[in-house]
# Entry
Amino acid sequence: MSLTRAELAALIDHTLLRPGATTVQIEALCEEARVHGFASVCVHPSRVRHALICLEGQVRICTVIGFPCGANVSAIKASEACLAVADGADELDVVIALGALKDGDRDAVLRDLMTVVAVSEGRVVKAILETALLTDEEIDLACAIAVDAGVQFVKTSTGFGPGGATPEAVARMRRAVGPRVGVKASGGISDAATARTMLAAGADRLGTSNSLAILDGWDALQQIQ
# Structure
């Protein structure tokens, strides 16, 4: 894969979702995103407004909705999304209603996602599937529901579940959604080799808190290809 360092950076959501992340750390995240040209910073909703001040429109702001369990009632997810949009979020990563999906309740999962899409005011919405909890058939179903709900991406994982992204899950999601919906690999992507594997499997966005290490390793990885 012959992406330059800058091209790779433009595919990365530079992420800091640790519960104890401080204001100083959020500010450092934003500065790193500005310097390296990451696709976005991904922060908790309570940090969106400060990220907006730090970034001054130079980098997109992503936040998480119904995170990390997806078990909030739909009205809460919609309210959280509305507030995030008002605070300046450009992208919304929403955890699907996992319990309803496991129940096989397609309509409930669809309605839940559509409440967030409806209030997103045209923002990018990414449906987080938490693939480590799902069977192959449930991944296919979740992807089909997400496409019907009108999201722009499906995303593997929260990073707080029992497992992160795998190339098998990414490839399956890519087949399920086709070329018109993006696939974001997230969770456990800590080095350049793993990043390359996820991209080769079909991801077109990566979510990681190890962005700088991945960029540093990318140059060396390209040299030994």
